[in-house]
Hints:
The longest helix has 24 residues, at 203-226. The strands form five sheets. The protein has a five-stranded mixed β-sheet with strand order 2-3-9-6-4, with helices on both faces. Strands 1-5 form a two-stranded antiparallel sheet. The protein is α+β, with helices and mostly antiparallel strands. It contains 17 helices and 13 strands. The chain has one domain (3-441): CATH 1.10.630.10. The structure holds protoporphyrin IX containing FE (HEM). Protoporphyrin IX containing FE is lined by residues 10-11, 91, 113, 163, 260, 263-264, 267-268, 271, 319-320, 323, 384-386, 390, 392-394, 397-398, 402. Heme binds at residue 392.
Amino acid sequence: xxxxxxxQPFHGRHIMATSPDALADALTLxxxxxxxxxxxxxxxxxxxxxxxxxxxxxxxxxxxxxKNLVVVGDPDMAHQILVATDRExxxxxxxxxxRFPTAEETREWMGTRKLIGRVLTPQAVRGQLPxxxxxxxxxxxxxxxxxxxxxxxxxxxxxxxxxxxMYLPGPAPAVVSALRDSIRAALVLADAGVHLPRWWPSSxxxxxxxxxxxxxxxxxxxxxxxxxxxxxxxxxxTLSDLLRTASVPTDQxxxxxxxxxxxxxxATAGAWSWLLHDLAARPDDMARIRDEAIACRASGEExxxxxxxxxxxxxxxxxxxxxxxxxTAPTAVSERCTVPAGTTLFVSPYLIHRDPRYWPDPHRxxxxxxxxxxxxRHRYAYLPFGAGPRVCVGLHLGEVLLTLxxxxxxxxxxxxVTTPATAPAFRSVLQPTGIRLQLTRRAPGA
Length: 446
Ligand code: HEM
């Protein structure tokens, strides 16, 4: 009953439509159409980014891997496709449902997105800085007490605890534990890349549904318990405060909070793990970040080198390394080619971030490429958060969380590699594998 598909991209999937029109249009694009498909799939599975990169070199910026599967490597075109999301294409599909969202569901989500966005504006995130800093410090302290750790094994819980103060007043251990289980179950499903009919009683799917129900039950209990006498702080309301003051019905509030807490976590977790991977490998940069953090604490200036380090980390390893769209209308994929509805489009931030036409010496980790005022950058060649109407709603929070984490590690801790990383895993989220790190508290005055 199982059909296997290639690994799932972030928020996307492969499809196998076979309309003659799709074939005719796709054939105007270069690529291994008509060749042994299992051949390219094997090559893709073995080394997804290497295969896509070699294909781009061979076939050019826009190429087709199958009748209805097109990869777009030109940043202007990629940006145009992302900007046309919800008009010419959809992000798809809900992996549990195995189908794309309806227009009504998309409209509903855009309303939810607006509510979530209100607690994630740059100003709102700045208002939460003390809470965020405290949460980041506490998370790192608990890691510093233990032995070597795999960053991917601890990242979800650590990032979740840091997000929580934006969403809920006070600690919520039952919510954290339910969310951690729910996200792990969802990642197993996503990484399996298995499409099953909706009615098929898969244990993977059952686990995700059970975990999601538990999250909703915990959130419902929390919201209901808080409702009667809560005082909302006017300067930095949490998302649950906003939902309460806007009299959002409990069912909807549970849905909004569940989405806000879970949707951004996999990518943040990947970025956090790569950040630690990069910091541990670069003691000289760590020293520079530490000096900057100490100087800025006194002067109140921005942590510009630390932020540059974070950006470079997300350039070299964008967690959402492959974005997918399913076209719902004819869509231009190059100057000369428009593909029909029903085509899957892949845009890879990973490939664009390592393209030497836009990034000199692209495989070198160089934070200073972000600090020099003389560096010219292509305006769409950096896409760690996507672009267009479905751009990451948590991008400010993500960047701030990572910047605070880097600064805290550099000032308060030593971070070392005890086991080096093996090849990165290009799953639904790009992640380091094999690595073990050790975090130890810095002695006072050291
Ligand atoms: C460094 C951390 C993060 C990275 C790299 C990241 C990356 C992304 C990317 C690339 C997308 C767009 C996917 C697409 O176009 O297919 C996205 C969407 C999204 N992100 Fe993030 N994200 C991060 C942090 C966060 C945080 C902290 C939150 C919220 C707490 C968040 C919430 C969301 C949501 C709700 C969406 C869906 C937007 C929509 O479909 O309308 N993200 N993220």
